[in-house]
Amino acid sequence: MAGERNYASGNRRYDQGRYESYGRSARTGTYVYGNAVENPVYTPERRQKVQEPKRQVSRQVKRNRRRAARMSRGYAVFLGLSFALVMAMGVYYVRLQNNVAAGNRNIIYLQNELTSLKEKNTTDYNAVMNSMNLETVRQRAQNDLGMIYASPQQMIEYTNPVGDYVKKYEAIPSSGKVSKHK
């Protein structure tokens, strides 16, 4: 290895028995200034692999290794059942998602139908209200059906003590007061 850098001996080169320095002189302590430093040449020493003799492995150790590498039946059954359970849960989840999507589509369809029915009802109500004239109704009631206005003697005013409506089970008394108990 003449002329090559040997890292085991520091920053020196061994060349036919004499030492040279790469930066400082070994004897004088001088230093080489500058930014251009020579790259050291390094060739790693080759080491020869020493082959160890193969140890004999007993039959029991080989059998134990094979047994450890195998999967037991119980573990295989456990893995199979776990896989089946996970797959069943995945299929169930996809079905639920599909049902939710179908429900959403049905809700949208029903909302559209409700909107169209409300529009139709509003249109029909406006048509009926526009076609009805109260004067025409009054004339038809008096002329065709023979109805007349009530006289003031026929009108009885009464107070309702219970609520906003009255169910009439018998004639209203002439005093106009309805008792609370009936």
Plain-language structure description:
The chain has 182 residues and is mostly helical. The protein is 44% helix and 4% strand. It is built from three helices and two strands. The chain has helices at 59-69, 73-131, 134-143; strands at 12-15, 18-21. Strands 1-2 form a two-stranded antiparallel sheet. A hairpin with a 2-residue loop joins strand 1 (12-15) and strand 2 (18-21). It is elongated, with a radius of gyration of 55 Å. The termini are far apart. The model is unreliable at 1-25 (pLDDT under 50).
Descriptive labels:
single chain; 182 residues; mainly alpha; elongated
List the helices and strands and how they pair.
Layout: E1 12-15, E2 18-21, H1 59-69, H2 73-131, H3 134-143
Antiparallel strand pairs: 1-2
